[in-house]
Amino acid sequence: MNAERITNYKLGFRWRCRRAGCNVITSPLKGTFFERGNVSILNTLRLLLHFFRKDKVSQAATDVGVTRKTAIQVYHYLHEVCEVAEAHDCIMIGADNDIVEVDDTHLYTNKYHRGRLLQRQM
User: Fold this and answer.
1) Mean pLDDT (10-residue bins), the chain, 122 residues
2) End-to-end distance of the chain based on CA atoms, in angstroms?
3) pTM assigned to the model
4) What angle do helix axes 68-88 and 57-64 make, rounded to 10 degrees?
5) Do residues 110 and 117 touch, judged by C-beta distance below 8 A?
6) Which of 7, 80, 70, 9 is nearest to 44 (CA)?
7) How far is CA 81 from the centre of its chain?
C-alpha cells in the first residue's frame, strides 16, 4: 500500500494498493474512533479533553469553536464508548456459590493527617 495525496480527505491522503489487479483504496481512519465523525481530528481531540475534564458542553463548544449541536453529538458518542468499555470490564470475583467479602479499611488514607494512624503508617 502506498499513500496517495488527496486534499479533501481528513488527513490529506488515503492508502492505495499498487499490486496488479488489486486497486484497493482504504482510508487510514477506517476502523478507528475518528472514522465516524465529520469534525476534524484536532477538534475531536480538543472535545475529548473537555469531556475527560467533565466540562459543560456549551463551554467545550465555545472553546473549541464548534457548534453546540456538534459538541453534544461528540459528547454523546464519547459517552457511548465509555459505556461499552465499562460493560466489557466486568470481572466476577469468585465462583457462583462463593461469598466474597471486601475489606475497605486500607482503601482510604487520612485527610490532613488526622485521625487514627493506619498500620502501614506506623
Assistant:
1) 74 78 80 78 91 93 94 91 81 75 63 63 54
2) 62
3) 0.58
4) 120
5) yes
6) 70
7) 7
